[in-house]
Amino acid sequence: MRQDGDVKHAVATTPPKATRRKRVPKEQAQARLIAATIALLRRMPFDQVGNQVICAEADLNPSTILQHFGTLDALLGAATQDLVTRHVAETVGSGAYPTSLNNADVDLRNRLVAWMLLKGADPAVFRTDIMKNEDMLAFQTESLQTGKRTAIAWTTMASMLIEAYSIFQETHHLSGDEADDVLALVVTLRSRLPEVEQSLGWADTP
Predict the structure, then answer these.
(1) pTM of the entire structure?
(2) What is the separation of C-alpha 203 from the centre of its chain, rounded to a whole number of angstroms?
(3) Helix 148-168 to helix 176-191 angle, to the nearest 10 degrees?
(4) Would you place residue 3 in the very low, low, confident or very high pLDDT band (cuts 50, 70, 90)?
């Protein structure tokens, strides 16, 4: 016959039922997952940011990533797009020329993309088409004082340089003066883009 102590022990060791969180609207859930992912990527190694920890950070059910993004890679891709979108909005909104070289959002995006590509992710997931953003294109042509063709070429080149800088900067061991020289050269080249545009015959390009 079972003793009272056995009954108490059996009751005490019965695992509690999992608490199911309330359903969250799609757009809100997606925004929370992206925000949680970015927050975690800032403070944890990339390979430790998985489904369970993201959903816990976002206070959502573990199945939410599957429901709204399909895969973790798709969510990470959405996070990289969000980082770019945020940077573009800040740049256009501030009216100041972007300081992408030392921007935390841009740096995180670039390092995450490089890590995922090494894992075999599809490059198409990370294409930003930043110069198809009409606000950004208008901002660039105005700030560079050039036409669209020159603005697109310059922004593309600058983006590729910044991506390389995010990933390989520690391999070059630049001194403070050397880094300043690089920046001064870039700024000078940028200031002379209207002249370069004329010499290339791009000034009249629609």
Answers:
(1) 0.79
(2) 33
(3) 170
(4) very low
